[in-house]
Task: structure prediction
Amino acid sequence: MAVAIVTNVRPWGGPAADVVVDGGRIREVRPASGADAAADGERIDGGGLLALPGFVNAHAHVDKSWWGLPWVPYGGEPTTQGRIAHEREERERYGLPSVDAATAVLREFLRHGTTATRTHVDVDLGVGLRGIEVVREAADRLGGAVDVEIVAFPQDGVVRRPGVLDLLDEAAAGAASIGGIDPAGIDRDPVAQLDGLFGIAERRGVGLDIHLHDHGELGAFQFELIADRTVRAGLQGRVTISHGFALGELPVPRQRELLERFEEAGISWATVAPPGTAPLPWREMAARGIGLGLGTDGIRDLWSPFGTGDMLGIALGFARLHGMRTDEDLTEAVALASTRGSRFVHRDLHDLVPGAPADLVLVDAENVPDALVRCPERKLVIAGGRVVARDGDVLL
Amino acid sequence: MAVAIVTNVRPWGGPAADVVVDGGRIREVRPASGADAAADGERIDGGGLLALPGFVNAHAHVDKSWWGLPWVPYGGEPTTQGRIAHEREERERYGLPSVDAATAVLREFLRHGTTATRTHVDVDLGVGLRGIEVVREAADRLGGAVDVEIVAFPQDGVVRRPGVLDLLDEAAAGAASIGGIDPAGIDRDPVAQLDGLFGIAERRGVGLDIHLHDHGELGAFQFELIADRTVRAGLQGRVTISHGFALGELPVPRQRELLERFEEAGISWATVAPPGTAPLPWREMAARGIGLGLGTDGIRDLWSPFGTGDMLGIALGFARLHGMRTDEDLTEAVALASTRGSRFVHRDLHDLVPGAPADLVLVDAENVPDALVRCPERKLVIAGGRVVARDGDVLL
Result:
């Protein structure tokens, strides 16, 4: 891949710099020269804009959105159980999963500067592994501009749906990570689901990312079961709990007990920061090195009409929910939506530094907090050193 | 004022219509003619866009924002008390209140389609009534494109700051409504503050809009004191409680008791729907005819770096906080940010109907829920029949 130079940008709001890109990675970040610095390769004028790393969406569902299709009025039920049933009844009517819709979602991500995502993809007795193929094809259509990590997700349950464990095993053989969902609340048998999932993860050497909506001590009990199995299976650093609403709801001493277990087990956490949920102890999680990533969750699907795929908006929601106000904290919220998300998409390094993938988002903002608060249009999105969106339009 | 016709718009997502404007008001809304319908007057091409009424911001603080000035890192304290003190110490350093900054805020409102606002304006021993003059001058600069209703707001307390009641009385003589703040929590003497405020309101014939952050039963106690005084003073329909966080926090039977009192006293309610606060019983409030308006609160000020002035974003936050999901509910959220706000800005009628002020906002959206969820750019903003913003830029 050719050498390119993104001139005159302000990385994280710092002094003007030129970012030299080579082979899809950042080779150098150096003070802006102002002159015709690049002897060879493409010059991309950064126009003095604020530069952030590409956003990382640590929790998405790109297979189930009807983005780009005509509006679908919400017709679900208010419980998780009811929504699962509703989705399985209705999705075919809207032709889901579909490559077109999944591509539309990924384009919307890209338009907002997201260059890497972990997506849960429904695997159940109805759809089998077709959703995974659909998402892979959608990602291919965009030539890899969005780096997609797939989690085979048993949305409809595992133990209660005999045959799903086999599907997950097959997906894991094809290199997808595997997911789980409320081993108690949905499957009504936490030990059986977790034994099944961890069995596959150990055998296939894949990661685990488990949805946990269960509240209070029922949630906490399952956190403990997961942490125990993670250590026993030697899967430290490979297991994520998604949502995990219970954590924020528990008393601080109980949170602390659990965080110790997570730290020991190298468990990371993905949240979509829904308004009205209990704030997470994010400072203590960070101090303990417990990975925390932000995600959009599903957008515009049979679960909920909400969502735009804008990770900067998610970071803003996280900041507001957690009462973040200082510049340092607001900047950390943006880091949670970008650099801190690297572990959720198999990246060792994701930042505006040499060696990182050349994923940049340019916005017209005074500094990082200003960008967070206003969520302005993405003037330029660069993925792997290639300009993929400009002035809010995807160029692919 | 000249006759104008806004052609080919979809009011509230309905069939294409032409909106005939005369003397700053809507004269007629008729099926789109598709032909050269207007014999005289200006034609404004609506391009098939979704039309909503201008947004109404029922609770703003346009005097204290540093919008348009360089970024100010947040340096306040986490309590209401601490933030009040911080603001009074720091505001002069940033030249607040300033006509330029207040104008910048109003322009930002307008850019996002807000054509009428109620704004609380600080009145205290330091600034006196200067803030009110500043805001009036800012509104004048925009030629009344944003209809501004002023509430003289004793942010720093009333009883604890002898002399402030006299300032409020003077402001009321100049036709401003008057405000109050946490008669218990800040002034430490709820009866004295409320007696003072209601005395002025009765004598001057102005409305009251009281900030109430106090939680739980302490908040409820003050709701009762306010309702009692409202009935006694014959001020039914003239009194608003702003924030009133306590209402959502109380058990449903207690809420119901209070709602009965509010209904009897004609008390209305303004909320800025902060994430993490308790949802309001909005359905029951609507069923009882208790007015509910949405507002931005202060944006980008010494209290908080958040806020953009986008009422559609506030409606979205309200919808998410209250678990609204059906098309009907999502449309109601937008109505709360527009038509339902009329009573907060002294308008009998505010909608896309004959007789209403010709305030229209056009967006490229499939329907109202789609507009709410995406909060897209305002393609065209019309205030009093005049195009005041286009493609996100204010034309004034």
Notes: The CA atoms of residues 66 and 301 of chain B lie 6 Å apart. DSSP finds twelve helices and 17 strands in chain B.
